Amino acid sequence: MRLNSLQAISALFLGSSILVSSCQQPGEALIDRKQRENEAEIQQYLTQNNLNAEKTVEGIYIIKTKTAPNGQEPKVGDQVKYHYIARRLDNVIVDSTDIAANNPRTVTLAGNNTVGITLGLYAGVLKLRAGEEATLLVPSAQDGNREGTLLLPQYAPVRYDLRIVSVRTEEQRIEEYISANKINVTQKTDDGLRVAVTQSRPDSAQVTTGKTVFVNYTGKRPDGTVFDSRSDGSFSFQVGAKTVVPGFENGVTRLRVGEKGTLIFPSALGYGATGSYNQSTRTYTVLPYTPLIFEIEIVKIQ
């Protein structure tokens, strides 16, 4: 899975090892031995603390510590905000979110395309509703292939105390953006495109299929971050040629020359379940399942 290593964790790991000693069996590979040792450590921890855990197919142990039966259940495509505290199995804290300032981490659930979270935390997120909490016991192999340090060795298991702050669908994220920014939506299509005309030119030419349209635009994610923009009037495309994402193209056809507007649409009309990935920088411009916002101006058509 494309599940990234825990951010900044290596900078915090500065202490001693907690690996349980175990004799290597003949012909056993290192990774297999470490997985076996991790399993023994976790079983010992569960027994010593009298814990009853659910084991996932990935080999991660989950002990739910707070339930919220009416909390929103996360599904693929949803955005989840969460807090966690990471500990060694001897209870030494090695990492956490900024709980005091209530600054949770955010992840968009995208199956194999999920980024920015370890497999262990991801498995836990999928098992919890908004408002629920759990303790996760995660073998090192499921913790992002991290580099070891003295505080948390590479092959040591880790405990996460996880709390789900919120779960939001794409539709909820879009509606929250519209409400927070006081956008007056003037048109909404069946496939989820919203158009808000902010500067009207009712007597000017309509953008139609086959025409080349020149536009200025600013592309934003729902958190307000700008990921692309053009303001010199030189960006153009032929309407109907499918050279831009569908939400952008369909939105432009609902405007006239000289008009300005805001286009808001779900990922199904944008970069979908795979997002937009920059191969040169090896980073996502747009994450999978991200709704998009474009503030646009129709400069001219030819």
What does this structure look like?
This protein has 302 residues and is an alpha+beta fold. It has two domains: 30-168, Chitinase A, domain 3 (Roll); 171-301, Chitinase A, domain 3, CATH 3.10.50. Helix content is 15%, strand content 30%. It is built from four helices and 16 strands. Strands 1, 2, 3, 4, 5, 6 and 7 form a seven-stranded antiparallel sheet that branches. Strands 8, 9, 10, 11, 12, 13 and 16 form a seven-stranded antiparallel sheet that branches. Mean pLDDT is 90; it is low at 4-24.
Structural class: alpha+beta
- Top-tier CATH class of the largest domain: Alpha Beta
CATH architectural grouping of the largest domain: Roll
- The count of strands amounts to 16
Low-confidence stretches: 4-24
Estimate nothing, just give the exact number of structural domains.
Answer: 2
Note the main attributes of this structure.
PPIase_dom_sf, Peptidyl-prolyl cis-trans isomerase, 16 strands, alpha+beta, rotamase, isomerase, seven-stranded antiparallel sheet, 15% helix, Chitinase A, domain 3
